[in-house]
Design goal:
With about 200 residues, the chain is mainly beta. It has one domain: Porin (Beta Barrel), CATH 2.40.160. The protein is built from one helix and twelve strands; from the N terminus they run ββββββββββββα. A twelve-stranded antiparallel beta barrel has the order 1-2-3-4-5-6-7-8-9-10-11-12. A hairpin with a 5-residue loop joins strand 6 and strand 7. The termini are far apart. InterPro entries: LOR, LOR_sf, Tubby-like_C. Pfam families: LOR. This is Tubby C-terminal domain-containing protein. Belongs to the LOR family.
Length: about 200
C-alpha cells in the first residue's frame, strides 16, 4: 500500500526513520519541544515554550522556516485541528477525536484535504506515549513508543520518547500529528490536575 505525500516529498525517506521527541531540552534549542533524528539533529520545533495549541501553532524546521501551521477549532464538542502548509491557507489535513471518552481510550481520525473520508487513524495509549498512526486500517505509518529513542537523546531530558516512521511516510505529517497528540494530552493532564507523571 502506497503512502501519500502530505506535506512535501522532501520529508519522505525510502527507509525506516527513527525520530526522537524531546520535551525538556536545553534553552539553546529555542523552547522545550523539538523532534530530532537519530543523530540528535533538530528536524522540527515549536514556536512556543509550552506545547499548548491555542488558535495557532507553527511547527518549524531547524532553519526556522515554517513547515506546517496547526489551527485548533472548537466545533461542537469535538476539538478539531486543521493543518496547513507552512504559514499559508493551503489546508493539508484535519484531525479530530472519533469518540469523546477518556483521553487514554480515544481514537483520532485524520482526513486529508483531497479525500472525502478519513484515511488515517491514531489509536493507542496516549498517556504513556504508546500509540500508532494507521493508514487505511491496515498499514502502520508510524509507531510512537517510549522504547524507540536513541542514546544521544538521553542527555536532553527525561521526557523523551521515540517515533518509528515507516518507509515513504511523510515525516512532517507525522511530526504534526505527534505535536497535536502531545498538546491534547498536556491539556487533559492540566484539566485533571496533572495526575499522570512523565
Amino acid at each position: 500500500m502506497e503512502f501519500p505525500v502530505i506535506v512535501d516529498a522532501q520529508y519522505c525517506s525510502p527507509s525506516e526513520v527513527k525520530l526522537t521527541v524531546a520535551k525538556k531540552v536545553l534553552e539553546y534549542n529555542n523552547g522545550n519541544f523539538v523532534i530530532t533524528d537519530s543523530e540528535g539533529h533538530t528536524l522540527f520545533k515549536l514556536d512556543q515554550k509550552k506545547v499548548f495549541l491555542r488558535e495557532l501553532t507553527v511547527l518549524r524546521d531547524d532553519g526556522d522556516c515554517p513547515v506546517v501551521s496547526i489551527h485548533k477549532k472548537k466545533i461542537s464538542l469535538h476539538d478539531t485541528y486543521q493543518v496547513y502548509k507552512g504559514e499559508s491557507w493551503t489546508e493539508l489535513f484535519t484531525v479530530w477525536d472519533k469518540n469523546m471518552r477518556d483521553a487514554a481510550e480515544l481514537t483520532y481520525e485524520i482526513q486529508l484535504e483531497a479525500d472525502s473520508e478519513p484515511t488515517f487513524q491514531v489509536k493507542g495509549d496516549f498517556v504513556r506515549r504508546n500509540y500508532e498512526i494507521i493508514f487505511k486500517g491496515a498499514s502502520i505509518a508510524a509507531e510512537v513508543a517510549k522504547k524507540h529513542f536513541s542514546l544521544t537523546s538521553m542527555i536532553t531530558g527525561k521526557s523523551n520518547y521515540g517515533v518509528l516512521v515507516s518507509p515513504n511516510v511523510d515525516q512532517a505529517f507525522v511530526a504534526a500529528v505527534v505535536t497535536i497528540m502531545e498538546a491534547i494530552h498536556n491539556e487533559n493532564k492540566e484539566k485533571h490536575g496533572g495526575k499522570h507523571s512523565d
